[in-house]
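From the pipeline queue, job 12 of 40. The input is one protein chain; the requested action is below.

Action: predict structure.
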Amino acid sequence: MSRSQWQKSSFSAANNECVEVRAIDGLIELRESDEGETILRTTRTTFATLLHGLKAGEFDHHA
């Protein structure tokens, strides 16, 4: 199993409370930097769909 480095947004700076991501074995893994033992794994297609929805504001809550 190949291992790649965890990456976080450049907007996070030195903050340790951020989401980290890495590609591994054809999948995408996500974790919270301060809760590293919990890892979510998904396909590249599903991750791309999530990113598209986030950028489009699909998950914004309006009161």
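Job complete. Residues 17-46 form one domain.
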